[in-house]
Amino acid sequence: MTIEIKTAVRQFIAENVLLGVHQTKIEDSTPLVSGGLIDSIGMIGLVAFLEAHFKVEFDPREINVHNLDTLQQIEDLIRKKLAGREAGAASGGQPIR
Amino acid sequence: MNVRIASAAYAVPPDGEAVKAVLERERDRVQATLAPLSPQARQKAAEGLGLTRVRVCGAQQPYDLVREAAATAIADAGITGPDINLILDYSTFPGENSRSLSLAHKLSVDLGAETSMNLSFKAGGCGALHLAIKTALGWMSTDKSIQTALLVTGDTAPPGNRSLLPVTVQGDAGSAVILRREGVKATEGPLLLGVEAMTLGHLHDAIALIKTNGHLEIQVDALRMENEVMPIYYLNLYRLVQKVLEACSLSLNDVDHFIYSNISRRDRDGFRRMVGLPEGGLSEGGLALTPMAEYGHTFASDLVINYVHLRREGRIRPGQLLLFASAGIGFTWGVTLARA
Question: Which domain holds residue A71?
């Protein structure tokens, strides 16, 4: 199954973080955090969404501007965590962190 | 093991200085620090400060402030020096005269607490109170002879280093908190329900203490603060708040008083948004009236100052839930929950 990560995140950001007031088109490489579209408070909602929607957990060290600044980076991180989960499940391992 | 905040007190030096004068005097340093930021970020840092004056040590040293605060806290708790079994000094900037020595050891002698265990650590900045509480609880839980703990911090900016823009401007203060095991005599005060803290070591040099020309200087990496610390600042604080509340089967709606730092107006506004309070809610809607205008930012003493003011104003009623939260150098985040 292909998970449309960027689509889901883009929609969440547009509806919840930017509250529909921004007309900015969010490209895959649009800098969300360093570009000022998502502030520190917005990060709370974004990370909560990612954890709930994709059923992953982030370690505090993983949550940084290098991993979550663009849709592409977010997708890469989520895919990495999902792949880890599948590998963990195959070996009867722990939930993904 | 139940432990209560038996008392808390603070002391500030009588002399003050206008923040405007501080920034003018340290203009070159401020400009160099803020240079890597965008014009908008520089403007935001200055406009969002919301500090007008800070108290500054003259003849007094942070130790003198700590001793004064400790004496007040001891009197308020209805105990004497020999009752203290543990002294924990968590000062971040205890002054050039005492930077290599623990304030706790001298304090034990001056307070007559000569049998106390004396400890000192230097980590956490504004978030250090939670580290101190958690450390004290650890000692108390593993050593039944430790009934009463005195936690102190005294901080002063190194000369010429009051500006920590784009974050804040530092004032000087000392403070003391007495924790007491429940059941020891008639111990009163808020019952500690939980303490959580976290650190991220890779951000240790976002605000660093370096030695230049034989003097300590605080170096703020403004770009790292903006790009690496601030995006996760409230997120980590929020996650700790949720963690400590959930462990007690409580939620944000149960909190009666949020006790937060006086770093800046911008920062207090961020915290207000984080916990979902309406605009102006952190200073008016049943929450701590900040003495920010009177003392400025005083590192970890901020929380003690704000707590003491709430008590003085009679705003803390029995049964109310208090949530202390702060974050600082390290980088360090901490949250403490207590029931009055």
Answer: 5-88
